[in-house]
Amino acid sequence: MRREMTALICLGFPIFYVFWIVFSGTFAVHELMIGAVGALLATSGMLVIGVQYPALFSPSACNLIAIWRIPWYVLSGTWEIAVVAAKDLLGIKSARSLFRVASFHAGEKKDPRATARRVLAVAYTTIAPNFIVLGINTSDRRMLFHQIERSTVPKMSQGLGAEQ
To answer: Which domain holds residue 71?
Structure first.
């Protein structure tokens, strides 16, 4: 536990500080000082949350590597939405709004590997513009998502536990 907190401090402060510099877009002395205070407050808040509500997140390398599919899903999803919007605009076919449910091997609630799979499945799948994952129900082993045009569940999501 102590090692994780040390890692949060060592990684959190510099990351938040860089975010501030990018956000402010300047290296003015007063902005650098405000950024240091802001990064310190953000790191402190992250530590308090980490102590009070420890996250059980332990992804496997295979789960993390599934991110390589995202650029294709973003491109194909954007194209899919553009086609649906064009058809709707031209009066060819009106856009639909679908809520769908897919089976999902959710695992146990307290299992860090299963939690990581669920989190990554929601994050990776929702990045594609034609999928919005609303959540994964662990007790029913279902994933609820929204689409404007029915398509198959992405292979990336299937690799993380979703089924057709």
So the answer is: 61-159
